[in-house]
Write a structure and sequence with these properties.
seven-stranded parallel beta sheet, about 15% strand, 2 domains, Rossmann fold, about 45% helix
Length: about 375
């Protein structure tokens, strides 16, 4: 097979978020699986400053790259016009899009695979702008034309069956992973004091990662933190993630609650710094309204951090009995679960132990192996 993989998202802001983690983790493992199986992996990357036209930071020996100029506007239309002749010229057997829309038309002999991470823009339209909502609706309609849809959880599979009306035999559940290595943990532990000093943090802290989007329910997190602070607890709250339009309302909400001196928003953090924060957190609190998988939960568990997660979406499916859960609409319940971790050292240690054990079940190698099997099935 000649497998074409659309990795252009790595050259955009999305590359610093969950979609970037998915693409990097999958491709790094997939390149090894493809090489061992005698297939060929063709990577479509965005234009950048690297010698090969890519700025994605991936080192994938033996993988052929094709650098594509990404238009600043009209990428959805560009995709529909440009992909068919390009896929035909390169004789691609299977084309996999992990984020952008698949082409409505494809050359003979080319099979299409689409990853649908979640259907949040359909279920919670207010979580995205009106412009992006229209693009997502178009992408999801086109996804129904794929030969196979990959979803990261049974929860998302149910949403795809209900909202996209796709035949169940064309949907495959393949969980995602984190793969935090012992070497990364050792490096992060050695750097933790410097990271905390750089952020001017001197108290115990709760941590949230995963961005500032509306769906992350950060107002609910701040309300829960206000409950804990009102109990006289000497703690801080770190909300990591790239700053953007949703950040200003978060700051305003923290100010309204009188929490500005206790809430840290360090912005986007490199992987080592993020692991260091996971390792030092009293608990990771993730009260999202909806998640198709929840990579930050797996990351936190891999690092041994106790997790308090939302009972909504796929988070309980991912975390199993290794997390505590709360209704995302109930700030008092979120605060109560976090307080349990803070007040019970044996519970915190047990959650840490169970979290690490559960996270070990999710590996990018297994994700890649199962994804490659999907390619082989659709290619016939």
């Amino acid at each position: 097979m000649r497998i074409g993989f659309d990795a252009r998202a790595l050259s955009t802001a999305s590359g610093r978020r969950g979609i970037g983690s998915y693409i990097r983790g999958l491709l790094t493992a997939l390149a090894r699986e493809v090489e061992a199986g005698g297939d060929e992996l063709l990577l479509f990357s965005g234009g950048g400053s690297g010698a090969d036209g890519a700025d994605d930071g991936l080192a994938l020996p033996g993988v052929r790259r094709v650098a594509l100029g990404r238009p600043s506007r009209g990428i959805t239309l560009w995709d529909q016009i440009a992909w068919p002749p390009l896929l035909a010229r390169l004789r691609v057997s299977v084309f996999h899009s992990p984020f952008y829309a698949i082409p409505r038309f494809r050359p003979p002999g080319c099979r299409l695979v689409q990853t649908v991470h979640d259907l949040t823009p359909l279920k919670l339209p207010a979580s995205v702008s009106k412009h992006n909502a229209r693009i997502f609706r178009l992408n999801f309609r086109l996804a129904r034309r794929a030969d196979r849809l990959i979803v990261p959880s049974e929860f998302t599979r149910g949403d795809v069956l209900e909202l996209l009306a796709c035949p169940p035999e064309r949907i495959t559940v393949i969980p995602e992973a984190a793969d935090v290595t012992p070497e990364e943990i050792a490096s992060a532990d050695a750097a933790r004091a410097d990271v905390l000093a750089r952020l001017d943090m001197k108290r115990a802290y709760l941590l949230h990662t995963g961005g500032h989007d509306v769906v992350k329910n950060l107002p609910g997190l701040l309300e829960a933190f206000a409950v804990l602070a009102g109990q006289g607890r000497d703690i801080e709250l770190v909300i990591a993630g790239e700053h953007g339009p949703p950040t200003a309302p978060i700051i305003a909400r923290a100010a309204m609650l009188g929490l500005l001196d206790r809430v840290r928003l360090p912005g986007f953090l490199p992987r080592r710094d993020l692991i260091a924060l996971y390792r030092g957190a009293t608990a990771v609190v993730y009260p999202s309204w909806a998640e198709g998988f929840g990579l930050p939960v797996i990351e936190a568990m891999s690092c041994g951090a106790p997790v308090v997660a939302s009972s909504a979406g796929a988070l309980a499916e991912v975390g199993g009995d290794a997390c505590l859960y709360a209704d995302p609409a109930d700030a008092a319940a979120i605060a109560s679960q976090a307080a349990r971790v803070m007040d019970d050292a044996s519970l915190a240690a047990d959650l840490s132990r169970r979290g690490r054990a559960r996270a070990e079940r999710f590996t990018w190698r297994e994700t890649a192996r199962r994804t490659l099997q999907v390619y082989r099935e659709v290619a016939g």
